[in-house]
């Protein structure tokens, strides 16, 4: 794990930060038995980790890791299920593919699956949910453009990053502060945060493509960055203007996907043979 100085604006203020020496990462690899790929995507205050895995037939399935045991989950009658978010009430969100190969967002709460499709959407991904039940995600319209959205109490609201030609909202904390990523008109990918209604871009100090995935209630933001949209990537944490690179030991690619209020991270790492594994732990 290594740290870099960051030029980052939040509430439209630029600041330089001097960094303390990085700490050694304490991570545990996570693999669903029999999976050829495991992705850990979010963790709540109880330490429940959710994500998805790919089986030997290349089919996606959701899972929750609870006290060291896997609980598997599939949206009924779906051709594939991916879980991306969980809140402290154990409500989960993600997306699934139906028998017509259309992708829909979903909420699973109190034993019930609710499909989430903004009006006019042709594809929906639900990425995250906070304790108030507010959901963030992205959808594709009939023209093929991707927009972010929020969903609360039955109402969808579209969100587009300023200057973005593609917007994905990927995380929301209990204060309603949101993170995501967007592509600019040159096709360059940037992370962003929306705090108290103010938009701020998040960029790796070297200028690489950057994704912001989650933020906890302490406004600690996590994600990954790399030379282009396909990687290879390094994970990072960002708090109070300090940008710290976090790589799984020995990995060729690290993507941090989630964080809880105890600063426990989850994500995926790729080994030198190309195998993809989940992970959890603290930097």
Structure description:
The protein has no helices and 27 strands. By secondary structure, the protein is mainly β. It has one domain: TolB, C-terminal domain (Neuraminidase). The strands form seven sheets. Strands 1-24-23-22-21 form a five-stranded antiparallel sheet, with no helix packed on it. The protein has a four-stranded antiparallel sheet with strand order 4-27-26-25, with no helix packed on it.
* Succession of helices and strands: EEEEEEEEEEEEEEEEEEEEEEEEEEE
Low-confidence stretches: 1-24
Spatial ordering of strands, largest sheet: 1-24-23-22-21
Name the CATH superfamily assignment: TolB, C-terminal domain
Round the Cα radius of gyration to an integer and report it.
Answer: 18 Å
The gross shape turns out to be: globular
Give the N-terminus to C-terminus distance in angstroms: 8 Å
The number of distinct helices, counting runs of at least 4 residues, comes to 0
Strand content: over 45%
Instruction: Say how many strands there are.
Output: 27
Question: How would a textbook summarize the main sheet?
Answer: 5 strands, antiparallel
* CATH fold-level name: Neuraminidase
Domain tally:
1
CATH class: Mainly Beta
- State mean pLDDT (0 to 100 scale): 91
* CATH architectural group: 6 Propeller
Oligomer: single chain
Secondary structure class reads: mainly beta
Helix content: under 10%
């Amino acid at each position: 794990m290594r740290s870099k100085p960051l030029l980052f604006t939040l509430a439209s203020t630029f600041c330089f930060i001097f960094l303390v020496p990085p700490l050694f990462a304490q991570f545990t690899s996570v693999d669903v038995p029999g999976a050829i790929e495991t992705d850990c995507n979010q963790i709540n205050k109880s330490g429940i980790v959710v994500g998805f895995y790919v089986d030997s037939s290349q089919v996606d399935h959701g899972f929750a890791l609870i006290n060291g045991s896997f609980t598997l989950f599939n949206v009924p009658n779906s051709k594939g299920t991916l879980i991306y978010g969980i809140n402290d009430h154990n409500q989960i969100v993600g997306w699934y593919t139906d028998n017509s190969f259309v992708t829909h967002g979903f909420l699973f709460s109190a034993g019930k699956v609710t499909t989430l499709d903004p009006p006019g959407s042709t594809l929906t991904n639900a990425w995250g949910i906070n304790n108030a039940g507010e959901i963030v995600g992205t959808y594709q319209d009939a023209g093929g453009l991707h927009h972010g959205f929020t969903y609360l109490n039955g109402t969808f609201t579209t969100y587009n990053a300023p200057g973005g030609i593609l917007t994905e909202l990927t995380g929301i904390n209990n204060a309603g502060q949101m993170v995501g990523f967007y592509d600019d008109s040159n096709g360059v990918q940037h992370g962003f945060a929306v705090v108290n209604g103010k938009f701020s871009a998040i960029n790796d100090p070297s200028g690489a493509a950057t994704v912001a995935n989650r933020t906890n209630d302490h406004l600690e933001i996590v994600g990954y960055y790399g030379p282009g949209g396909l990687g290879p990537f390094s994970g990072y944490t960002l708090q109070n203007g300090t940008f710290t690179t976090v790589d799984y030991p020995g990995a060729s690619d690290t993507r941090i996907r989630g964080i809880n209020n105890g600063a426990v991270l989850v994500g995926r790492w790729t080994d030198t043979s190309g195998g993809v594994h989940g992970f959890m732990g603290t930097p």
